[in-house]
Amino acid sequence: MKIEETMVQYxxxxxxxxxxxxxxxxxxxxxxxxRRFVESAFxxxxxxxxxxxxxxxxxxxxxxAASVLATDINDExxxxxxxxxxxxxxxxxxxxxxxxxxxxxxxxxxGLAAFWWSHIAKSRLRExxxxxxxxxxxxARVVFLDNVYVEGSSTPIxxxxxxxxxxxxxxxxxxxxxxxxxxFPSEIELREAVRGIATNVRVEFLRYYWILxxxx
Length: 216
Ligand SMILES: C[S@@+](CC[C@H](N)C(=O)[O-])C[C@H]1O[C@@H](n2cnc3c(N)ncnc32)[C@H](O)[C@@H]1O
Description:
The protein is of the alpha/beta class. The protein has one domain (3-152, 186-215): Vaccinia Virus protein VP39 (Rossmann fold), CATH 3.40.50.150. The protein has six helices and ten strands. It has a seven-stranded mixed beta sheet, with helices on both faces. A three-stranded antiparallel beta sheet has the order 6-7-8. The protein is globular and about 40 Å long. It starts with a helix and ends with a strand. The chain binds S-adenosylmethionine.
């Protein structure tokens, strides 16, 4: 199985226990700041969310956005997200592959991907961004949130491949072990990744998370 397929399988199996990651006590201040950022970034916008998982951030965006189309490749996580009481008149969930997004009739004015960038192989970043930008209108506000590597809090990096991607070995509650691609980009790498396809680029590093935002 390719590493990307392994990751899809891992998140399907992890669906029920996924949101425990948001309960780590030392991360609560940073998470509050991320929530505030996301709420204000998408005020009144029509938002396309990539890799929405169990809908944790969908719920946050839905607090201020005009509408949210939240997508993920996994039916298992989408089933959990759909079961949440998240503004059903403004939010819809759909199965979609992040690398082959198709523009709908109405391009969105906001784009969000939380904890997804870190799972993209460096060689596929541009392919993903091209796909993402297809569903976004010119001038759309784009936000990525993801993890900073913090010794003692993050799962240790188990290996680095020839292209510079890093990996972690993760264990689920049933004892199964999974190797997951998980990159921890620097500010320079983030800026480089969107060079020429974004304006108003802003990168902020908190203690546990980073935020990349720009205008498409
Ligand atoms: C780390 S989780 C993030 C979930 C959610 N955004 C959050 O922050 O709570 C990564 C998500 O990416 C999804 N995923 C993996 N490969 C994908 C792909 N090729 N296209 C779309 N989603 C994918 C997984 O199913 C999983 O829900």
